[in-house]
Amino acid sequence: MTKSRIAIFASGSGSNAEEIFKYFRQHPTIEVVLLLSNNPDAYALARAKLFGVPSKVFNRQTFKESETILGWLAEYGVTHIVLAGFLWLIPTWLIRSYPDKIVNIHPALLPKYGGKGMYGPRVHEAVRQSGDLETGITIHLINELYDEGPLLFQATCKVEPTDTPETIAGKVQTLEYRFYPSEIEKLILKK
Questions:
Q1: Closest CA to 112 of 143, 148, 86, 159
Q2: Which domains, from first to last, does the chain contain?
Q3: CA distance 58 to 70
Q4: Model pTM score
Q5: Which pLDDT belongs to residue 50?
Q6: Is the peptide bond before 121 cis (omega within 30 degrees of 0)?
Q7: DSSP letters spanning the chain
Q8: What is the biggest distance separating any 2 CA atoms in the chain, rounded to whole angstroms?
Q9: Which residues have a catalytic role annotated?
Q10: Which residues make beta-bridge pairs with 56?
């Protein structure tokens, strides 16, 4: 049986990437084969090394030119792409090369608090300022616009009056770790 092969794109600490590494480590039909980062100092690279996952670092120029990235993806036989804290807009050439096979997670209930510049603490601060009684995660496919691809899954958590952006972030991260790997699996296996 041919395995599905995931490449993870990450820009930061890689905590979601690590949860994905763990989830698929012994999976019979899905494996993580590559981590790509636009940040040479991303801790995600150290996490990949710890799990024996090869990694590549690229700059903006390389990302604009499809040949290098597509070459890496082909070299590792990548069938699906997972964004795990990757902050750059995905170029059209990559979306066309992997139609409906690039998945992202957003730390809010889209369409709220999405779009360019809305990531990490900025999202949780906006949720806190809004007075919303709940927030959560959105797992979605990628299109040419930030956070506007088709929704696959959402999970919610309560926002208490005493919550700070940091406590909101903790609640959201718990949801990310709990649901992102299994939702990736469902997408790949078309459950």
A1: 148
A2: 1-99 (3.40.50.170), 105-191 (3.40.50.170)
A3: 12
A4: 0.96
A5: 97
A6: no
A7: -PPEEEEEEESS--HHHHHHHHHHTT-SSEEEEEEEES-TT-HHHHHHHHTT--EEE--HHHHHSHHHHHHHHHHTT--EEEESS--SPPPHHHHHHSTT-EEEEESS-TTTT-STT--THHHHHHHHHHT-SEEEEEEEE--SSTT-SPEEEEEEEE--TT--HHHHHHHHHHHHHHHHHHHHHHHHHT-
A8: 51
A9: 106
A10: 36
Token representation of residue 188: 């790949």
* Separation CA 130–CA 135 (nearest Å): 11
Q: Residue 82, Cα to own-chain centre: how many angstroms?
A: 5
Strands 80-83 and 102-106: parallel
d(C-alpha 42, C-alpha 137), whole Å: 23
Q: What is the mean pLDDT of each run of 10 residues along the chain (191 residues)?
A: 93 97 97 98 98 97 90 98 94 95 97 92 95 97 93 98 96 98 96 62
Tokens at residue 4, please?
Answer: 């599905």
Measure the N-to-C terminal CA separation of the chain; round to a whole number of Å. Answer: 18
Do 85 and 12 form a contact (C-beta atoms < 8 A)? yes
Neighbouring CB atoms inside 10 A of 30's CB total 19
Q: Residue 138: what pLDDT?
A: 98
Q: What is the pLDDT of residue 64?
A: 87
